[in-house]
Amino acid sequence: MSDTTPASEPTLSEQEQVRREKLARLRAEGVDPYPVGFPRTTTIAALRERHAGLEPDTRTGERVGVTGRVVLNRITGKLCFATIRDATGDVQVMLSLDALGPERLQAWKSDVDLGDHVGVEGEVISSRRGELSVMADSWAITSKSLRPLPDKHKGLTDPEARVRQRYVDLIVNPESRRMLHTRSAAVRSIRETMHARGYVEVETPMLQTIHGGANARPFTTHINAYDLELFLRIAPELYLKRLVVGGVEKVFEVNRNFRNEGADSSHNPEFTMLEAYEAYGDYDTMLTLTRELIQQTARDALGSTVVRHTGDDGEVAEHDIGGDWRVVTVNDAISDALGEPVTNDSTLEELSALAEKAGVPLAPQWGRGQVLLELYEHLVEEHTVLPTFYKDFPTDVSPLTRAHRQDPRVAERWDLVAFGAEMGTAYSELVDPVEQRARLTAQSLLAAGGDVDAMVLDEDFLRALEYAMPPSGGLGIGVDRVLMMLTGKGIRETVLFPLVRPGQ
């Protein structure tokens, strides 16, 4: 068999075969089922706005051209009714024998299927029941659909099908269309808030020769031109800090990051983050910015700071994320969860004993900071509902963070947690190039020892710090996580095209 032999055609359902036969017939009759365009004069939303409150059985005298996908088609004798949908809404189309004549009315009945795109020209009227309608005097198929839409009563309900065929999901599920617009409004709000506060938006490389800025496993690739191994970025941090060194005192990026760490209800290997840095800010500065930014995003995307989440019992609960948010040290949070005190003086042995008592699994090579972090993730993070800033993590698990100004055993770092998931993190940035070199050297030794999540030494970044970076605060917020927080949905619903295993 030749390598160029085309793959066999998939088996067609009866409906798909009928639609292809219609397509062939239309072409044989000289009808172009995929024309270059149609003389549309208005969107459906604009049409509805102009004629809101129209009395029943009214003729407006206004003639329009509208386009949309046929989502409902009711065939009767001398009068047919259809609903068409464009990106802005739905409107009823009426097709009568008197207005179209027998040939064009019969063509609608025989040629048009659910899912087809059509263009309709005619007068704007209201039906006897008061339904805003376009009384068609001409129409055309603008794109023939060769596959039937899902059952109009059941819709597309299978979660896997909704993810794999998002285009169908958007056609038939109003909730998915709302999510798309909610996400768009949220991302726009984030950008506008940052611009309004004087931050400069930039773009940094996605392909990097050295991965850094987070403890995560990278994706690797290869550039043929230079014969080099490259990494998809796990974070833009080290490049944004170079810009702060260069004098860009308030900088941000809404970026795509890639981490080779699996996928679940709150993780996608490719995700969107806001990362920002402010000279002469610190982790308290970034705390206030983060709270105000997310609350403004809620107002812009939802209309209020009230969010709705479905509990384990299936009940929907409302939560107001307005106002101040709790700020708790990591030690205090773990102490509350255990019912026993945990302090900066607690030893590795004491923390390990507490973990064993609480049923938190540990690895034997972990140091004190990693054990404390594991206690926090198991006992605190996943049980947090309302937005809470947990601050002052151990320095040894915060390699890019300035040591706390009162106690160097902890770092000036917070994590924002809401509804059981981390939303973001912020630091008072470590700008001492000597200390940063020591910490990255320690990380690189871990990486050389087989720790796939450890950072490696970036000499150019360290060289940049040696030109002096001003005291700064930095933050990273997961945009996908913010959408989950605002909508109560999982990441596969808030991301348009999450990565899934190949399938039909």
From TrEMBL:
One of its GO terms (biological process) is lysyl-tRNA aminoacylation. Its main location: cytoplasm. Homodimer. It is found in: Cytoplasm. GO terms for cellular component: cytosol. Mg(2+) 1 binds at D415, E422. It comes from Motilibacter peucedani. This is Lysine--tRNA ligase. It comes from the Bacteria. It is an enzyme of class 6 (ligase). NCBIfam families: lysS_bact, PRK00484.1, PRK02983.1. Keywords: Aminoacyl-tRNA synthetase, ATP-binding, Cytoplasm, Ligase, Magnesium, Metal-binding, Nucleotide-binding, Protein biosynthesis. Its cofactor is Mg(2+). Binds 3 Mg(2+) ions per subunit. Residues 188-502 form the Aminoacyl-transfer RNA synthetases class-II family profile domain. Its EC number is 6.1.1.6. It catalyses: tRNA(Lys) + L-lysine + ATP = L-lysyl-tRNA(Lys) + AMP + diphosphate. Mg(2+) 2 binds at E422. InterPro entries: Aa-tRNA-synt_II (IPR004364), aa-tRNA-synth_II (IPR006195), aa-tRNA-synth_II/BPL/LPL (IPR045864), Lys-tRNA-ligase_II (IPR002313), Lys-tRNA-ligase_II_N (IPR044136), Lys-tRNA-synth_II_C (IPR018149), NA-bd_OB-fold (IPR012340), NA-bd_OB_tRNA (IPR004365). Belongs to the class-II aminoacyl-tRNA synthetase family. SUPFAM superfamilies: Class II aaRS and biotin synthetases, Nucleic acid-binding proteins.
